[in-house]
């Protein structure tokens, strides 16, 4: 029992146990880092530094405080990044559903919504992002506070005193519990020799074999979160990046953008991964994948790291066209602000405006028109598509835009004849009010033939 083999094993187990999470009444299980409940978030830089020191955040992590997904509690933790970068008009929360950070658009806040980029270490400047009540942000218009101002002040004072007591005792509790755990394991090591034999065999597995096994798991399950984290640990140790390693890192970025894994995306971008490289059968870029899955925060950070908003995939679909297809107005506005081509069409000639008109999305149609979207496209005309979908409001919006811009849309596209064919008399009247010329003799003849053919088909049935 006193052989060097067992002594080394005992020392190794003791070192590992120093990192075992200690249970406290404030501890929240399930995350890869320690997360605790708190009554309030730091209200000044001095409080931020004190709380960061109390939780033991190191140089490789940063203290963060934010609500949970249900907006019922505030949670604090040491996030495994030196700098946690947050985009404008965004408040972060920690989600149990996806086990990492997620974002909430705060544009509708009555006050306090961050207008600029900021760091998690500056959260005390934006108290609206950590002020919650009744399952909502207090700054939201439809969120009602339970307590008056005086009651809130008194509760804050009591909460502050409780929080300081808990933080003061947390380190002492951690050390005491760690010592008890270490003593228990040492007793097991001294009494249960069969366990030593099993652990010894595991330790003797060659490192090379374990690395090959790990990479095999990664290649079979590149989209799996745990496999991706393993890959990150391996990839960041490379000193000279070969073409194959660069491709693997790009695949990691693509899958993180698809899954909304902000932490992995940010880490890979800091590593210098190419944001514009196309991979896969459809040649999608990371930006297209983020737009496809509606991850606004990831779209923002990709654009900040010089992702090109006009690089298309195999079908010549641009990120803007993909975002329009998904009906995500916030992402469309973001891409347009970064000079996304509003008139970029795919191989078939479909434009973002055509897609917005097809889906009946009035706000998207207005946004695209304000950025110079063309209406006078003959093959895939947005007005015709709006007529086919009986979207009267969008038809009127597009016609008014043509009048303001001096675009003669009627001669090119035959809108009146098309509306008659669709038997939508409300849109026929709307077109006539906006200067549509009467039907030509040829159009009348074709319309009568169409009507006659339809009548005969009905009689046969």
TrEMBL record:
Entry keyword set: ANK repeat, Membrane, Signal, Transmembrane, Transmembrane helix
Gene3D superfamilies: Ankyrin repeat-containing domain
Signal peptide boundaries: 1-25
Superkingdom, natural source: Eukaryota
UniProt protein name: Uncharacterized protein LOC111127808 isoform X2
Listed InterPro entries: Ankyrin_rpt, Ankyrin_rpt-contain_sf, Cul2-RING_E3_ligase_SR
ANK repeats by residue range: 282-314, 315-347, 348-380
PROSITE patterns, per database record: ANK_REP_REGION (PS50297), ANK_REPEAT (PS50088)
A matching Pfam family: Ank_2
Membrane-traversing stretches: 175-196
Species of provenance: Crassostrea virginica (Eastern oyster)
């Amino acid at each position: 029992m006193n052989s060097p083999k067992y002594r080394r094993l005992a020392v190794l187990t003791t070192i590992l146990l120093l990192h075992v999470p200690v249970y406290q009444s404030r501890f929240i299980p399930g995350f890869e880092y320690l997360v605790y409940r708190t009554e309030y978030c730091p209200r000044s830089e001095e409080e931020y530094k004190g709380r960061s020191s109390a939780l033991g955040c190191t140089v490789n992590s940063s203290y963060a405080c934010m609500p949970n997904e249900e907006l019922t509690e505030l949670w604090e933790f040491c996030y495994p990044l030196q700098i946690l970068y947050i985009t404008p008009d965004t408040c972060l929360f920690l989600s149990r559903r996806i086990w990492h950070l997620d974002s909430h658009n705060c544009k509708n806040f009555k006050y306090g919504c961050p207008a600029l980029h900021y760091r998690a270490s500056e959260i005390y400047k934006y108290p609206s992002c950590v002020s919650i009540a009744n399952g909502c942000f207090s700054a939201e218009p439809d969120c009602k506070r339970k307590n008056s101002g005086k009651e809130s002040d008194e509760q804050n004072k009591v909460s502050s005193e409780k929080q300081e007591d808990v933080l003061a005792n947390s380190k002492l509790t951690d050390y005491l519990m760690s010592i008890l755990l270490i003593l228990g394991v040492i007793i097991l090591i001294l009494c249960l020799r069969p366990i030593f034999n099993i652990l010894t065999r595991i330790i003797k597995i060659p490192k090379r074999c374990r690395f090959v096994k790990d990479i095999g798991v990664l290649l079979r399950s590149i989209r799996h979160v745990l496999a991706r984290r393993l890959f990150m640990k391996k990839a960041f140790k490379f000193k000279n990046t070969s073409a194959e390693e660069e491709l693997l890192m790009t695949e990691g970025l693509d899958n993180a953008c698809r899954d909304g894994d902000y932490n992995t995306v940010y880490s890979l971008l800091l590593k210098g991964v190419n944001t514009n490289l196309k991979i896969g059968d459809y040649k999608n870029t990371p930006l297209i994948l983020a737009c496809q899955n509606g991850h606004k925060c990831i779209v923002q950070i990709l654009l900040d790291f010089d992702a090109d908003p006009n690089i298309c995939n195999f079908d010549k679909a641009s990120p803007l066209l993909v975002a329009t297809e998904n009906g995500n107005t916030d992402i469309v506005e973001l891409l347009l602000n970064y000079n996304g081509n509003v008139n970029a069409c795919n191989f078939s000639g479909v434009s973002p405006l055509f897609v917005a008109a097809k889906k009946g999305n009035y706000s998207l149609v207005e946004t695209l028109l304000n950025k110079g979207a063309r209406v006078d496209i003959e093959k895939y005309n947005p007005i015709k598509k709006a007529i086919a979908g009986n979207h009267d409001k969008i038809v009127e919006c597009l016609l008014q835009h043509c009048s303001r811009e001096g675009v003669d849309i009627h001669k090119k596209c035959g809108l009146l004849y098309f509306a008659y064919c669709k038997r939508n008399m409300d849109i026929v009247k709307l077109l006539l009010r906006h200067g549509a010329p009467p039907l030509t003799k040829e159009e009348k003849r074709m319309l009568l033939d169409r009507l006659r053919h339809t009548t005969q088909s009905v009689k046969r049935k």
